[in-house]
Write a structure and sequence with these properties.
The protein has about 260 residues and is of the alpha/beta class. The chain has two domains: about 160 residues, Alpha-Beta Complex (Spore Coat Polysaccharide Biosynthesis Protein SpsA, Chain A); about 60 residues, Serine Threonine Protein Phosphatase 5, Tetratricopeptide repeat, CATH 1.25.40. Helices cover about 40% and strands about 25% of the residues. Strands 3-2-1-4-7-6-10-5 form an eight-stranded mixed beta sheet, sandwiched between helices. Strands 8-9 form a two-stranded antiparallel sheet. It is globular, with a radius of gyration of 19 Å. The N terminus is likely disordered.
């Protein structure tokens, strides 16, 4: 039995930025449609049927000129939504469970909601999954910073919510589409902040997903030297560093 008190008074918007996502945009929108009051899609230059599909699903679609800055796009989408709460998803994701947790959080005090992202991927022909916890439920007024792997800027408490989102953007065909884009943007960020451990971590991840384990280990090692001891990503960084060192035949360094 539902324990949601006043669902009609909730103001939650699904916020998505997309470009050429006709493969999956309907899946994303329809997975959340019944649990939000409106859906906002910011299109950054699609040449396929993304816009028409999103509109047919009931989304409000706005156009945005891509400027190599994910935070700028996210913030533009948030300004169009202007809801009390924003559920942030990518087009290659879908809400698997957690609608009740979403509504309960939206009835409480402002917070940054951390949700579970389940990534489908393939290593050496074997299908697998990994989990990440990322900030995806934002109250009104919270915006992003960062050209890529953007993060919300806020001093609000960050709490894990029982919300599960699936993601298949690490499938090989999808990775090939964004290989050069992500690498270029990360290098631009690194020029601005060469000792930012989070950027170094994300650059390592980018090398890892394309199986350049030596370069991945290099950037992970630099990141782990600089990362704060309370960094939320420190545990996955440590695991990824060990994995890439082993794959790069640097076992002695991994043991050290």
């Amino acid at each position: 039995m539902s324990i949601i008190k006043n669902p009609s008074k909730l103001d939650i918007a699904l916020v998505v930025i997309a470009r050429n996502e006709s493969r999956c945009i309907a899946r994303c929108l329809m997975s959340a449609k019944n649990f939000v009051q409106r859906m906002i899609v910011l299109d950054t230059g699609s040449t396929d049927e993304t816009i028409a599909i999103a509109q047919s699903c009931g989304a409000e679609v706005y156009r945005f000129t891509w400027n190599d800055d994910f935070a700028a796009a996210r913030n533009a989408a948030l300004s169009y939504a202007n809801a009390d709460w924003h559920l942030i998803m990518d087009a290659d994701e879908w809400l698997e469970s957690g609608d009740e947790a979403l509504h309960l959080a939206a009835q409480g005090l402002p917070q940054i909601g951390i949700v579970q992202i389940i990534n489908d991927y393939e290593i050496d022909g074997v299908s697998s999954q990994d989990n990440a916890w990322l900030p995806r439920l934002l109250p009104k007024g919270v915006i992003y910073k960062g050209r890529i792997h953007e993060q919300p800027v806020s001093n609000l408490n960050r709490n894990r919510l029982a919300i599960r989102i699936k993601h298949d953007g690490y499938d090989k065909p999808q990775l090939e589409k964004k290989r050069h884009r992500n690498h270029s943007l990360l290098l631009k960020e690194l020029e601005i902040a060469p000792e930012d451990p989070y950027i170094l971590y994300q650059l390592g991840k980018n090398y890892e997903v394309y199986k350049d384990f030596t370069q991945a280990a290099h950037y992970y090692s630099k990141s782990i030297e600089l990362a704060p001891k309370n960094a939320a990503y420190l545990h996955p960084l440590s695991i990824r560093l060990l994995f890439c060192l082993s794959k790069a035949n640097q076992l002695e360094q991994a043991i050290k």
